[in-house]
Each structure stands twice: as C-alpha cells, then as structure tokens.
Amino acid sequence: MATRARPATDWLWWVALGLLIAPGLSLVLRLAGGGLGARPLHSALRATGDWALWLVLLTLAVSPARVLLRWPWVVGLRRALGVAAAAYATLHLLLYCQDENWHLGFIASEITLRFYLSIGTLALLMLLALAATSTNASQRRLGRNWKRLHALVFPALLLSLWHDFLEAKADISAVVLLAGFSCWLLAWRLLPAGRRERTVVLVTLGVLSGLAAALSEAGWYWIAVGVPPQRVLATDLSFAFGPRPAAVVALAGLAAALAAAVRRLLRRPG
Ligand code: HEM
Questions:
Q1: Ligand 1 — pocket residues by CB below 6 A?
Q2: Can you point out the beta strands (E) in 122-179?
Q3: What is the pLDDT of residue 2?
Q4: Does residue 126 share a domain with residue 14?
C-alpha cells in the first residue's frame, strides 16, 4: 500500500521546500553576480555535487529519525528530499556541460572514458529514476516492484561516494564525513528491527562508523598519495587540527544513541 507522502502539517512541507530551494537559488544569484571566486562555474559544480550527496544522505536519514526519535511526520519530507537530490545532481551535470562549453561530443567521450564521470552518470540516472517514480500514482502502479526499484538509492549513494572519492584531490575531509555517515545509515538498516533502538547497539554503531570513516581516510591517502596509513590514523587521535571527520561521525552516532534513549525514557508511562 502507498505510504502517505505529505507531512501532518502543510506549513512544515513549505518550510522544507523553501530550505531545499534556497541554496540553489543563492548559488544561481551568486553565479550571476560574480560572487563565486576565480572559477565560478567550477565552484558551483562542486557545491551542487555536495548538496546532491548530502540530500541523498538526508533522504536515508528519514527512517532512523522516524524510528529513533519517533517523528512520524518526517516521512512526509522524504519525497521532497529525494527529488531535491536528483534536481541538484541534474544541475551539477548542467554546470559541468556549461564548464565544457556544451561540446557534447567531448562531454560524451569524457563520460565514457573517465571512470569517475561514468559512475557519477550512472548514479544520476538512478536518482532520476527514483524521482520520476516517487509519485503516489507510480507507487500504486508498480505495487511491490516499487520498493525493489527504490532500493536503487543504495547503489546510487555508493556510486556517488565513489565518484566523490575519485575526484577528490587534496582535502578529503568532506567525503570522509559523508562516507562515515553513509556507513551508519546503511548498517542501521541491516540491523534486525528489534535491535535498532537499543542503546548499546547504537553506541557500537556510532563507534564503528567513526572507525570506518578513519579507515576510509587512511586507505585513500595510502592508495592515492602513498602516505602510510598509521600516520593518518595517528592524526585522528590528535585534536591539534580540530575534530577530525572520524571523530565527528562517532560523536554524531553517540548523540543519536543518547537522543533515542532520552526519547524512550520520555515515553515510558508513570
Ligand atoms: C552526469 C553525472 C556527473 C558528472 C558529469 C559529474 C561531474 C563532476 C565533476 C567534473 C566534479 C568536479 C571535479 C573537480 O573538482 O575537478 C564533480 C565533483 C563532485 N560530484 Fe559529480 N558528477 C556527476 C554526478 C554526480 C552525482 C550523481 C553526485 C551525487 C549525488 C555527484 C557528487 C559530486 C560531489 C560530492 C563532488 C565533489 C564536490 C567537492 O569536491 O566539493 N556527482 N562531479
């Protein structure tokens, strides 16, 4: 049966819509007004890529927020988040085409020959398929196959992360953060339904996701730059450069465990 896509309060939906459109609008205005630095198109390309990926993550965060915080209304925002992710990814592609002066033959050859662009394109096609079939009518028409089709969000996320890791040059903090959060969100879904809310399970998940983020960072520096992994891992234990992405992921996981525990206590009768 189709799930209700609208949140309980219409005003919330409009606020969410405004928040989703605002960064795109601000980007277009800054692009037009010359406020995006020396390589404005390139900056806009990067910003839209980041937004698309964060929105895919937020779409996946809806289920844990509903279960752990007991926020049933967030389900109504899922469709808007998913469609916005596809829209920002499309804008990202359009900016790439503009950056290449719409030389479509060259763009097609780049997409076929450069692996990071090929997998980015595949991820975009998946996001577009999800957005196009996100309506209630599609849910009804596709029946049980709708859920199967929408499981494409997982390969789309993994391909987008891979795309981001492959194009990253020197500072990979942002993609490591995204990888750690993705790890938490994917692992949480694999947990048996009865264990997903247990504090000990959530604390372990937070710590392991932080560890996964640390390992992905060390692995990238080792493979791409040849820096020994132990040197990168050692920086995770030092706060000299501020909190490292792995620590942020672990702390966010612990915060989720704490929030879920408080929510459970508040609901306990008497
Ligand atoms: C047709 C598909 C795509 C093309 C042609 C494309 C192209 C690019 C290019 C050229 C870059 C910048 C590389 C550089 O800095 O030199 C980039 C970065 C990026 N892309 Fe894509 N991309 C595509 C799809 C996607 C999708 C579907 C996502 C996410 C959902 C995504 C997320 C990102 C992210 C996060 C970055 C890095 C931004 C940053 O460094 O701050 N891309 N992409």
A1: 45-46, 49-50, 52-53, 56, 89, 92-93, 96, 117, 120-121, 123-124, 127, 160, 163-164, 167, 174
A2: none
A3: 41
A4: yes
